[in-house]
Amino acid sequence: MRERRLIALVILCAGVAVTLLISTRLSGAARAWHDPDNPPPIYNPYPPGILPSDLNSEIARVIREVDNIESEALAQLRALPPPTLTGQPPILAHTGQRANVLLGKVLNFDKNMSPFQTRACAFCHMPYAGFSGPIPSVNLTMVAYPGSVKFRAGKRTAQRYTYSPEFPVLNFNTTQAAFFGGNFWDSRATGYLLGSPDANQAQGPPVDTQEHALPDTACIAFRLESASYKSFFEEIWGDELDIKFPSNTEEICETPGGASVFGTDTMPIKLSPEDRARANDVYDHWGQSLDQYEASSDVSAFTSKFDAFLKGTYTLTTDEMAGYKLFHGKANCNSCHLDGRSTASCRTVKTLAPLQARGRPSPASARQISECP
Predict the structure, then answer these.
(1) 159 vs 278, higher pLDDT
(2) Is residue 167 within 8 Å of residue 160, measured between CB atoms?
(3) DSSP assignment, residue 362?
(4) Rounded Cα–Cα distance for residues 151 and 104 (Å)
(5) pLDDT tens-place string over residues 205-247
(6) Is residue 15 pLDDT above 60, yes or no?
(7) What DSSP letter does each residue of 111-156 carry, written as one string?
(8) For the chain, what are the domain ranges?
(9) CB–CB of 322/333 below 8 Å?
(10) Could you give the CA distance from residue 182 to residue 201 in angstroms, rounded to a whole number?
């Protein structure tokens, strides 16, 4: 009996020692990132001429713009009359949809959703740049945008938000013998879980080590617990943001994902199974609110020149029509950039193009489509 107690005591002490060691290492890593007297080493992997000379000033400019739009979104959300919870099953009637759209807008411009509170989704997706990258010098040089960790850039240029919420769940269309749907450049955001590739895509950047770089998806729920708009998130989704987070959660969330202290652990925040499930629900709702914003007329207004062309209210110029013909014809662009119009024949183009325009084209646009070679 005494030997069993001794063994149990040794195991307990060893567990405490390991926990303290990990916590100490993590605290040291966090201090290294935030202590101005002990900054992390700056690793710049790019050869001369790749990074634009105005990178620092442009990053600062965009962050100021993000802050301004976040303030605007918060004001819009607070000024909105509260929705009415009614019905069975219950729904948020009247202003419920608009509240979710504005919540998504706030989430999109909240830079606290990153380890150093310096990167919002909108940093790479600004309205005046068609919800893509807003720094001209970056677009002309490195193309991919710098994430939370300086000089650690993403893998590709930022996709635009517009129209992306319309993409279906990734599927194989047997009629055209091709895959359709999904999001990201490689369609890896399939939408299988949430039923929306756009919402699925929104869940990628927060934990991408080259973008926001949070080390755990639960960091989103943790940061939302102290957000000024917490009550709106709880009202819209019914989530109670009172998850029992361990005392070292802030240290974990302010350490970028990929840090050696984590090893291969993608869930360094140690939660109970119940709290992990709740944090996962919050993360799903985070993506769904962002999808609601991107699908709204605030972002995807269907007011492009091509929309006007399909409606018959705009006539393509000679060069534009030439490009349209090339896209569907000799250039064979549409063999990779599938848009539901196919490259098979002009008859297919004329048949399927209206489906993308949410209605049948006017005679004027039909005539222009018929000019496809």
Answers:
(1) 278
(2) no
(3) P
(4) 28
(5) 999 999 999 999 999 999 999 999 999 999 999 877 889 999 9
(6) no
(7) TTSSTTS---GGGG-BGGGTSB---HHHHHTT-SPB-SSTT-B-SS
(8) 55-295, 305-370
(9) no
(10) 9
Nearest CA-CA partner of 369 in 349, 352, 342, 348: 349
Burial track 119-135 (b if 16+ CB lie within 10 A, e otherwise)? bbbbbbbbeebebbbbb
Give the three-state DSSP class for 189: strand
The span from the CA of 30 to the CA of 24, in Å, is 10
Q: What is the SS3 assignment for 265? A: coil
Q: Are 59 and 146 in contact (CB under 8 A)?
A: yes
Question: Which run of H or of E encompasses 178?
Answer: strand 178-180
| d(C-alpha 300, C-alpha 309), whole Å | 17
Give the count of beta carbons closer than 10 Å to the beta carbon of residue 351. Answer: 13
Amino acid letter, residue 322: A
Q: How much is the pTM?
A: 0.79
From the candidate CATH numbers 1.10.760.10, 3.40.640.10, 3.30.930.10, 3.30.70.20, the one assigned to the domain spanning 55-295: 1.10.760.10
Angle of CA points 256, 262, 264, to nearest 5°: 110
Residue indicated by tokens 């060893």? 14
Judge residue 216's burial from the number of C-beta atoms within 10 Å of its C-beta, 0-12 exposed, 13-18 middle, 19 or more buried: buried
Give the model's confidence band at 48: pLDDT under 50 very low, under 70 low, under 90 confident, else very high.
Answer: confident
Sequence-distant contacts of 279-284: CB under 8 A, at least 24 apart: 279/217, 279/218, 279/220, 279/221, 279/222, 279/243, 280/217, 281/239, 282/220, 282/221, 282/224, 282/237, 282/239, 282/241, 282/243, 283/203, 283/217, 283/218, 283/220, 283/221, 284/193, 284/194, 284/199, 284/203
What's the number of CA atoms in the CB half-sphere (13 Å) around residue 234? 12
Q: Kindly state the percentage of the chain with pLDDT values over 90.
A: 57
CA Rg, the chain, in Å? 25
Task: Output 247 or 307, whichever has higher pLDDT.
Answer: 247
